[in-house]
Specification:
about 170 residues, about 0% strand, about 70% helix, Transmembrane protein 216, mainly alpha, 4 helices, elongated, single chain
Length: about 170
């Protein structure tokens, strides 16, 4: 006699056992699995968005410190200083949503948020060029900081463009 709970051999012997029984109701068939979909998000794009965000934090702090230095040490016209310093606050109001939209578009595999992030990048590129070429006093640290920022935006643009193409082609030929 077998103890209660012991497994009974299947009728027809061990060869008749097909495989593990699905958990659930007795006699219930396992749910069919959906075919797996390819992940289209761009890891490279997301990496540059992530590190671009950290660079933006460093850029913002350094930019404020450079402006404080310029305001204290250089004969800045008051009107120009106020205008150029206010660009730093305008920059942060544009950069944070731009990175958010780029990240959201990449993670959700949608092209429109990335395109909107490209549109927001246009005034930022204008600000970077202004800070490098047209600012009242341009220091070497200004050139370095803005060059790195332009490189990040450029690389993000290239990866974002590739991601958009991948997303569009995947929906078109799916």
């Amino acid at each position: 006699m077998q103890p209660a709970g012991a497994l009974q051999p299947a009728p027809g012997g061990p060869a008749a056992q097909v495989g593990p029984v699905a958990i659930g109701q007795p006699g219930q068939q396992p749910a069919p699995q959906k075919p797996r979909r390819r992940v289209l998000t761009s890891l490279g794009f997301q990496i540059f968005i992530y590190f671009g965000g950290w660079w933006d934090l460093a850029y913002y702090i350094l930019n404020i410190l450079v402006f404080v230095y310029k305001g204290l040490q250089l004969p800045y016209p008051t009107r120009n200083f106020a205008l150029e310093f206010s660009f730093a606050f305008l920059w942060i109001l544009i950069e944070v949503p731009r990175l958010f939209l780029a990240s959201k578009g990449n993670k959700t595999e949608r092209a429109m948020p990335i395109i909107f992030s490209f549109i927001l990048a246009l005034p930022l590129v204008g600000m970077y060029v202004y800070y490098v070429a047209f600012q009242t006093f341009v220091l070497k640290v200004d050139r370095l900081m803005n060059a790195v920022a332009l490189i990040f935006v450029g690389i993000q643009f290239v990866f974002g463009l590739l991601a958009i193409i991948r997303f569009i082609l995947a929906t078109r030929f799916a």
